């Protein structure tokens, strides 16, 4: 094997060295026997396989929730729904009537839906992998094939595959597997999301070159640079080994000259809390409450939400937990709500817009649970409102908080009004930042949406990926304007987008004046280390030069230097 480097998309800021193990989940059945089949018998075989698949999925969902997190485990709920999809069911029945055995009927029934999804953009394209996962599971059960156990790989294995489905990735044991790389996939694919949750080095979307890598080859998989190094030098191996030894800092950190920076983590479910603490997070900078509402037939009641919020607060008794109120819409549909069919849902009814209109009862229930938790939980609670575009929206939200507090007081229910804040995700919020900051305790910059809306470049659209760089001059200037507005109005300011978790950008963000940074838990140790090496004056000068740059390329060159 020649010494060379293959490039894809890094999924996790971790690197490791290991030995290649190829994983092939080929579901090619060959041609069916020409003898006729009994349709009733084949349908019964299909039903038996479907029930067996259902049992497997339910078990895997529970195991994944415990090992990885409730948010990641939710993908198996979608798989369970695909098992009962009427289109799939009718497709199997039709194929069986045309003398196809059940396994071939399953393959035919899934073919069109898989093709439809893979031709879509962004996250919808990832549904094709979900369908492949369900299809291959059914075929395996129908043919009696032995399942490859990805949980029992040799220690130090680097798994290479065409693609890894959710059920594949959920099997990987981070104590044994060094990392993985795939031919297809992107940063938002299920495999990449699972890799970040498991802190597993991974590179996805390398392309056809990956197929040339031989079994048992020694490689370095670098999820930070997006590289797979073949036949690495001794120096490269040592670098990867050193990168895998993470120095977790459990105490709060300060810059080299003593300025405190809060380094928190983004969380989707209580099941993730222990992992967040294990990475040394000071608290939670973004608690995504919409995941409490997904994958169920009715919304959680006040007591269920109260328990979830107090659990988070009790996990960080000396820290701060920032809860984002319900952000429904966009790419987060809720089946039991009457969500409109919008041509562009990211520019439609989502976030605070729904909370103040069609979802007012849900909003008030959530606020009741939050105010109760603020009084009873051990940690410090803060609450922020998503996708605020106008001062009127914020005023209405604050009036609702006051009304809920008055109601709880009348009922003699213990409660407290927590710190209140606004997410800055729209250009209009940036321009209104002084007025917004004057009304609340803090602002939190959501760089993922702010970049999308500022640059008119949709998240998930690979054709405009270069424009989604948060270091574009227009985005940086919007961020700087927000920080300035917050501090001039005695509010503190944080960031909870992916930009906050990039250690290469930590000096820039400290120089811009951020008080708090929140990110995926796996990047917390690296950002804390970066904070401690920073001198504030140098960081401020660095940020000033970046704000003067005219192009994104100039800013990136400056960052590289």
Class per helix and strand makeup? alpha/beta
User: What is the CA-based Rg, rounded?
Assistant: 25 Å
Low-confidence stretches: none
User: Order of strands across the biggest sheet?
Assistant: 1-8-7-3-4-5-6-2
Largest sheet, in brief, is: 8 strands, mixed
Silhouette: globular
Tally of helical segments: 22
Question: In short, what is this structure?
Answer:
By secondary structure, the protein is α/β, with parallel strands linked by helices. Helices cover 44% and strands 15% of the residues. β11, α11 (302-315) and β12 form a beta-alpha-beta unit.
What can you see in these coordinates?
With 561 residues, the chain is of the alpha/beta class. Helix content is 44%, strand content 15%. The protein is built from 22 helices and 17 strands. The strands form 2 sheets. The protein has an 8-stranded mixed beta sheet. Strands 10-11-12-13-14-15-16-17 form an 8-stranded parallel barrel, surrounded by 4 helices. Helix 1 packs antiparallel against helix 3 and helix 4 packs across helix 5. The longest helix has 29 residues. The mean pLDDT is 87.
Keywords:
single chain; 561 residues; eight-stranded parallel β-barrel; alpha/beta; 15% strand
Question: Helices and strands in order, then pairings?
Answer:
Elements: E1 4-7, E2 9-10, E3 15-23, H1 39-67, H2 70-73, H3 75-83, H4 86-97, H5 102-118, H6 127-143, E4 157-161, H7 166-171, E5 177-182, H8 190-198, E6 202-204, E7 218-222, E8 227-230, H9 234-243, E9 253-254, E10 260-267, H10 273-278, E11 284-288, H11 302-315, E12 320-324, H12 352-355, H13 360-376, E13 380-385, H14 391-410, E14 419-424, H15 427-431, H16 433-437, E15 442-445, H17 447-455, H18 473-488, E16 492-495, H19 506-512, E17 516-519, H20 524-532, H21 536-548, H22 552-560
Helix pairs in contact: 1-3, 1-4, 1-6, 3-6, 4-5, 5-6, 11-13, 13-14, 19-21
